[in-house]
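Hi W., the GNR complex you wanted:
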Amino acid sequence: MAVRALRLEPDEILRKKSKPIEVVDDKIKELIEDMLDTMYEANGVGLAAVQIGVLKRVLVMDDMEDGSEPIVLINPEVTHTERMQRGTEGCLSIPNLRGIVRRPYITHVKALNENGEAVELVLEGFLSVVFHHELDHLDGILYTDKAIKTYHPDEDEDEDHQEEK
Ligand code: GNR
Ligand code: NI
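Structure:
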């Protein structure tokens, strides 16, 4: 288990384009394990390698529904999208901010899995949102670039549990 340090805005690495992975070797598998450890430790639902300082095209996701398994995607490509949705996003690299972003509601993806095997999957709803958020990280794009609006949740969000002031 290795939790790695998260890169935070305005670290300029977050603006760089990640490079395709040529061989899924043991070093990549270790990177993926560290990404999952780091994501779970931070209570995130997704993570791109650049967020721990590695400019490689790999992302992990886990929507934390009951019985959910992590999804690992290497060199992901969008093959098709359908319909749009808008929803609230946050980013582990941009603490204390939220934003409303439009994303495809359904996304067909082609990628390699953690064993280097070609996979195709169809992501819907929140997983489609998280996927596009992570794919953008691989291209140096942050959700704040696309947000219709951003806000500080402590000020504006109707939280279930808010600190008494
Ligand atoms: O943990 C995260 N939650 C989240 C919520 C809505 C839309 C996207 C995300 S991804 C984010 C983790 C992260 O920053 N991944 O890059
Ligand atoms: Ni993010």
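DSSP finds four helices and six strands in the chain.

W.
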